[in-house]
Design brief:
By secondary structure, the protein is mainly alpha-helical. It has two domains: about 1-40; about 50-204, no CATH class. It is built from seven helices and no strands. It has helices at about 5-50, 55-60, 85-95, 100-120, 125-140, 150-170, 170-180. The relative contact order is 0.12. Residues about 20-30 and about 30-35 have low confidence and may be disordered.
Length: about 200
């Protein structure tokens, strides 16, 4: 191999090394984005898969009263690990001990509202997924009341919504947490009314 050819080979090798370096740098630079994207997909799937269970509605594993511990943090206490804050869950059972149907829609709404302060990843993808769950929970409450008398329908709906919201957002810190969760993080979404309830309330 003559000297000229050797110089050309060295030049090509230098170029290939620089291409390899640039490729690795770009790959490393994109890695955090890729991981965030994958983590977001996993979290959104988890949000969509989180649903109220019949055991929750029937009080199979009711938690102990958290007492004053309930309001010491924004997240509160969830001793039975069902995603619903214990003090809110117990309040629903105390108020509606004889109506599994009412408990079902209120517990579902409470579960969705609790997601707003429990998300480990907060971005447009996860926030929008939670908003869909909250919207479904909100509409589910309306599904158990007849629309024959619209005035009565609205009144009962308001009472039930406010019952959960008043207990779920019972401190300034929690109200701020909800506001901050949605601030500049919410994308567009829609709710399918026919699929708004996690459980078939007509069977309760």
């Amino acid at each position: 191999m003559n000297e000229n050819m050797k110089m050309k080979v060295k030049k090509v090798l230098r170029i290939l090394r620089w291409v390899a370096v640039v490729f690795v740098v770009l790959l490393v630079a994109r890695l955090p984005f890729y991981l965030r994207n994958e983590n977001t997909k996993e979290q959104v799937a988890k949000i969509h898969a989180t649903k109220l269970t019949m055991d929750d509605v029937m009080g199979v594993n009711l938690p102990p009263d958290p007492g004053t511990e309930a309001d010491k943090t924004v997240a509160g206490i969830d001793a039975n690990k069902n995603g619903i804050r214990d003090d809110v869950e117990l309040a629903i059972f105390k108020e509606y001990p004889n109506s599994a149907k009412t408990r079902a829609v209120l517990l579902q709404y409470a579960l969705a509202l609790q997601m707003e302060v429990m998300q480990p990843i907060v971005n447009i993808g996860t926030v929008t997924a939670v908003a869909e769950k909250t919207s479904s929970g909100h509409y589910c409450i309306g599904s158990i009341t007849s629309r024959d008398d619209i005035e009565k329908f609205i009144k009962i709906g308001d009472i039930l919504h406010e019952f959960v919201e008043g207990r779920q957002l019972n401190t300034e810190d929690r109200k701020k947490a909800q506001h901050d969760f949605y601030q500049e993080n919410l994308g567009s979404y829609s709710t399918v009314l026919s699929e708004s309830c996690d459980l078939d309330t007509s069977k309760l």
